[in-house]
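Hello Y.,

Per our agreement to keep a running log of every chain we model this quarter, I'm adding this entry. I've kept the format consistent with earlier entries: sequence first, then predicted structure.
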Amino acid sequence: MKAVKTAAIVVVAYVGIIVVFESLIGYFQPADGSTLVITTFDGDGVPHDRVVSRLESDSQLYVATNHWTRAWYNRVLENPEVHVRLDGERADYLAAPVTGVEHDRVAGENGLGVVLRILTGFPPRYFVRLDPR
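Predicted structure for the entry above:
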């Protein structure tokens, strides 16, 4: 019984770490040279900005869902027309979900460190290709 209690405490503590880490990332949205700002639009046309990591593969621009919180990704699936602010410039893009061989290539070229995977609770990772409009 003591082992079950210990395991439960460890699981609750781990989930707490994930929630705190994800909340801090969502609140502060740290931005630097390896990020971009993507503007997605909800069903009412209201814009929502999110800082995401900028990825490149085969001379194409990509972003990934690396966290459990992914409202921006769900909006992209509903409305793929997005705005991107990259290196101080704003441009219109068409976001295309990535699957199959392309997904495997992008994932292989843009791996995540084990520490980040642990801190985010091993969420599934999806990629979006950003095609200029």
